[in-house]
Amino acid sequence: MRILVLGGDGYLGWPTALHLSQTGHEVAVADNFARRQYDFELGVESLVPIESLQTRISTWHRLTGKTIQAYIGDLMEADFTYDMIRDFRPDAVVHFAEQRAAPYSMIDRKHAVYTQVNNVAGTLNVLYAIAEIDPEIHLVKLGTMGEYGTPNIDIEEGWLEVEHKGRKDRVLYPKRPGSFYHLSKVHDSHNMEFACRIWGLRATDLNQGVVYGQQTPETALDDRLATRFDYDAVFGTVLNRFVVQAVLGHPLTVYGKGGQTRGIIDIRDTVRCIQLACENPAERGEFRVFNQMTESMSVADIAETVARSFPDEVTINNLDNPRVEKEEHYYKVVHSGLVELGLEPHLLSDTLITSLFDVTKRYAERVDLDAMQPRVDWRGALGGERR
Ligand code: NAD
Ligand code: USQ
């Protein structure tokens, strides 16, 4: 298949592009390097050094003989988006290209507006381009488990059968997310469902849990193919942060009681899920939703699992929670769709955690300890930096 990976320079987009190329697909990537720019803005960088997109692509070509085409531009620019889709003529578009950090979206008004405009308008341009150029193209879009929030009932895969006053219907599962970033994904989901229902597009919304890990078989082939590994309080995700903290002897930063439970997934399963979604497209007119996670864990359990795998003393520090979220709640998620397509999950294991320790030790001198402290506070209408 011809697969266009939007956001192909990012943490997940790059390993996904390599995996799809390795499994025989014709791959192109697109990116505007916004992610590299946020690093400059925040004064942080990936723990693992990353090469330019051009070096990554030429290294892959030298090692495997496979070619990945690159489109450098912004999805907010409709002309760029249309020209790219006309030029590459993909069978599937995999869309990772959004601002993806909840704390970044909660810094202030400017960052909230940027996040929602970038994410929602970028996706609208993609939907229009597909509808006008070739409605057969399958859109595989990264959503998030955080769209659902933490409801007091089981979380279904995107849709809910309801019975109300004796009548039945199938409706989009109600959403109650926890940040302006997570809300941008809810808005995207509604726009995609509308485009499928009204224009007959085909789309898969992958509500992914928190990703952990840094290597896939393809990125491990050469240091120049490495993907980023963020540990700072804005872009670092919880398990990756805890591993870096454990190696450095820094207390693990559990927000509040740590009872908040999340769906999690290994980066090796992320790339496989995308492959499965592309190779088994949704039907024309179908808005298909999968919950892309493999297990649920509370933040406290994640901290204890990391601490247990570490030979030295690791302390756990329960910080005042800078976010507004339930720290004790029901959490039961249906996530069978991707397993039915053939996913064989890697569950969190000591081996994975130990391999992350090795990556962290290798680059430990690059860590900026100040970047570990959460400074973005959800409270109050203005959110903003903690002083
Ligand atoms: P990332 O920030 O590393 O990658 C996103 C890429 O998209 C970046 O390279 C960025 O430069 C690019 N981009 C952003 N806006 C763009 C635009 N307007 N035009 C062109 N390129 C643009 O993020 P990631 O961790 O790889 O996440 C990828 C996707 O997966 C996101 O949509 C995110 O919401 C979703 N997701 C991530 C996780 C996680 O734990 N990392 C979990 C669930 C869902
Ligand atoms: N947390 C801590 N300590 C930390 C960091 C986080 O206790 O040092 C807690 C948070 O309070 C939260 C949970 O861990 O309850 C997850 O936080 P996170 O920063 O790992 O994840 P989140 O903000 O939800 O965002 C990440 C990705 C985002 C993706 C989402 C999937 O950045 O792109 O959409 O995970 S999900 O959580 O399923 O919505």
From TrEMBL:
Pfam families named among the record's database cross-references: Epimerase
TM segment ranges: none
Domain NAD-dependent epimerase/dehydratase intervals: 3-291
Coiled coil: none
InterPro entries for the chain: Epimerase_deHydtase, NAD(P)-bd_dom_sf
Family label: Belongs to the NAD(P)-dependent epimerase/dehydratase family.
Name of this chain's protein: NAD-dependent epimerase/dehydratase family protein
Natural source organism: Nonomuraea ferruginea
